[in-house]
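User: Teach me something about this protein's shape.
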Amino acid sequence: MQSIKKQPAGTQATDALRAEIIKGRILPGTRLTEVVLADQFEVSRGTVRVALQQLSQEGLIIQVPYTGWIVIPISSQDAWELYTLRAALEALAAKLATEQMTESGRVALRKCLDGLAEACEQKNSRAVAEADFRLHKTIISLAKHERLANQYRLVEQQVRIYIASNDALTVNYQNTINFHSQIVEAILAGNAAEASRLSEEHNTHDGERFVQHLRKIEQMTNHTKIRAL
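Assistant: First, the predicted structure itself:
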């Protein structure tokens, strides 16, 4: 981790710790302690405490009694809630973005799609996850619906972890490009209904796959615990 040198230290510490979590360098379920983080970032424990409180509000970490702070683990229930919520919000955003499209919006959307295609060609899962999120966030922005954007901001950091975890399972990056290309092309073609349908279909397809993956892990974990009793 990089040490924190500049002020405001609280903001810098928050950004640095958030990046470590989202990029997967700090895994879900990891216990976080003020002493260790303060030493790694070269800041005070008070500064670290500010960062932990902020990330707690963003839903990236939780405080467990008698344990401390831990990076939020993604359960099958969490994944189901996130993908169903994304499906609703992003389908609406795709529809509205189509109706509100401008020339600058077209350029921005094309740029995001090109960035995702480049990351997929390199088969860099972390870069794919960041480009994936950037594309969807751009569509949210292009919808020009402030209340929709505000609702998305409430969960966007959790969505970033969800996307990173889900994209890490991808073995065929061409499918990722195809799904997103279809959504973008529908938006740029002015087909609002098709853009909305494809966006919802994309979230549902990937979401159900991820949920099933997590359920298998949970079943195996529960089975192991039962055998140990």
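Now, about its shape. The mean pLDDT is 90. The first strand starts at residue 31 and ends at 32. If you'd like, I can walk through any region in more detail.
User: That's plenty for now, thanks!
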